Amino acid sequence: MAKVFERIDDKLREFISEQAMFFVGTAPSTGGHVNVSPKGYRDTFAVVDDTTVAYLDLYGSGAETIAHLRDNGRITIMFCSFDRKPRILRLHGSGRIVRPDDNGFASLRETFGDDHPGTRAIVVVEVERISDSCGWSVPSMELVEERSTLDDVHRTRKESDYARMVAGSNAESIDGLPALEPDHPVPSLPAPEPSPAR
């Protein structure tokens, strides 16, 4: 039986922390395409308080979520349990983008786990509705491992690669809505380690 919750309590926090992935749904205000994005890496999602959540937004092939949030702020986050106990949890709310050069980014960044080299921004969601449902038709599956592929690829990229993404595939949505601004900061790459002394 579906239930609506007033806040993200300890039991919901525990359920969220146990999930290996989540899904993000957004849409433009008028026309256009609805977007659903799967998100991995457990340490990229955080419950900030009882009605606020956030996640690390990593560079990818597009920037639909950012474009839609700039357009209207509407967002739904869905967690889906694939283990023996089925459950679906949806967080409906209003989202905003915190850029790496925005005030508050550094303190928010401390909320998350390991450093992910392709961090583009942090998405913060003020949750307005929290509900669950049975998930009885969702298959039961076992997690083998998290894929490191996205982090591995980002570690090989140069600042110029990210700059091309900001100006190209991440500049607007597939419907032409603006996404990343031209001055969006690209990830700073670590300085090369000095050669060992001989």
Automatic annotation (TrEMBL):
Residues 185-198 have a biased composition (Pro residues). Residues 8-133 form the Pyridoxamine 5'-phosphate oxidase N-terminal domain. InterPro entries: Pyridox_Oxase_N, Split_barrel_FMN-bd. Gene3D superfamilies: Electron Transport, Fmn-binding Protein, Chain A. Residues 173-198 are annotated as: Disordered. This is Pyridoxamine 5'-phosphate oxidase N-terminal domain-containing protein. The lineage of its organism: Bacteria, Bacillati, Actinomycetota, Actinomycetes, Mycobacteriales.
